[in-house]
Amino acid sequence: MAKLPEILKKTIVARSRFFAVEELELRFSNGARRTYERLRPGTAGAVMVVPLLDDDTVLMIREYGAGVEDYTLGLPKGGLEPGETLEQGAHRELQEEVGYGATRFTVLKALSLSPGYMASRLSILVAEGLYPSRLDGDEPEPIEVVPMKLSELSDWAWREDLHEARSLAALYLVRDLLRARAEQLPHND
Amino acid sequence: MAKLPEILKKTIVARSRFFAVEELELRFSNGARRTYERLRPGTAGAVMVVPLLDDDTVLMIREYGAGVEDYTLGLPKGGLEPGETLEQGAHRELQEEVGYGATRFTVLKALSLSPGYMASRLSILVAEGLYPSRLDGDEPEPIEVVPMKLSELSDWAWREDLHEARSLAALYLVRDLLRARAEQLPHND
């Protein structure tokens, strides 16, 4: 594997309320130089929650996405608030967006969006031991909760309104995890 | 499902060479108003290629990502050039980044990155009938090609250097597709 390129210079070249664009001057180990732009990393982390109602049922949500100007299916997610752990942020988002609390969280993996021009990582947490519990978030309208069977994921994955890559990846990872768990359980045969 | 919110106003609030940030004023069907920021949609599309060397082998690549400041595993991808179809763009990227041409492309699905604040969609294409063919791209250093067995995806998916959500989702989708194809083939038993 190649040696990491050297970062010669970082400059903020544009900024809005929520975004900052950073220009990066790089020298690769072979001497090649490039200037790239990327979205500047945010300070806090972010979480995506896979709420497991039972061993085969995930609670998904349908909400409006201003980027695609449409309602889309996905998993609850959000940025951490100052001082929150991953589990605390996941528990808050779960209660705000799905109306459930959970007794057990497992951190699965941190997914990246676009390693080429975004630093952000989204930590995927599985939530189990669900119980009804609602917190008010800042949602402009009630979020629709949509139960999905993991055993039917291979069909759901082709739906037109389920296209967000991180939700799809998280669902497949959880399906793998549950299958591996099931294989470790003692069998009756 | 709720009626789509009305877009009252769109304003560009920041701009760099590659990015433009747009502010969106929305009125939801219940009357709630929100102002969101999003990255403005690019004009052309983008493609991600799943190069199938055989029914179980995908050619992945390892390249530097300026966003995460590290080398990461993923699938070849890139923006379309003016006038290119999805298949033409996929064929060019495959030859530039992997050093293979392909005789057959199948469009699987268009994945979104972050529906809340990005419009961009990435079309996933499976490339089959591979043959050696190289085009020069604008890569600063040679890209390492890493063959991966789809039958081992459930292990690879947990690797630390494989975290890009769209690559993971695309790999799982292709594994599903190939399994469905295999079930449709006549059996000898």
Explain what the structure shows.
The first copy, chain A, has helices spanning 86-97, 153-156, 165-184, and strands at 6-15, 20-27, 33-39, 46-54, 57-65, 70-74, 77-79, 100-112, 121-132, 144-149. Chain A has 189 residues and is of the alpha+beta class. Chain A has two domains: 6-39, no CATH class; 46-184, Alpha-Beta Complex (Nucleoside Triphosphate Pyrophosphohydrolase), CATH 3.90.79. Chain A is globular, with a radius of gyration of 19 Å. The N and C termini of chain A lie far apart (47 Å). The model of chain A has no long low-confidence stretch (mean pLDDT 93).
In short:
With 189 residues, chain A is an alpha+beta fold. Chain A has helices at residues 86-97, 153-156, 165-184; strands at 6-15, 20-27, 33-39, 46-54, 57-65, 70-74, 77-79, 100-112, 121-132, 144-149. In chain A, a hairpin with a 5-residue loop joins strand 2 and strand 3 (33-39).
**Biggest protein-protein interface?**
A-B, 68 and 67 residues
**Percent in strands of chain A:** 35-45%
How many beta-strand segments of chain A? Answer: 10
Biggest sheet descriptor of chain A = 7 strands, mixed
CATH architecture of the largest domain in chain A: Alpha-Beta Complex
Mean pLDDT of chain A: 93
The number of helical runs of chain A is 3
CATH class of the largest domain in chain A: Alpha Beta
**Principal-axes shape call of chain A:** globular
Structural class of chain A: alpha+beta
The helix content of chain A is 10-25%
Order of helices and strands of chain A: EEEEEEEHEEEHH
Task: Write the CATH homologous superfamily of the largest domain in chain A.
Answer: Nucleoside Triphosphate Pyrophosphohydrolase
In angstroms, what separates the terminal alpha carbons of chain A? 47 Å
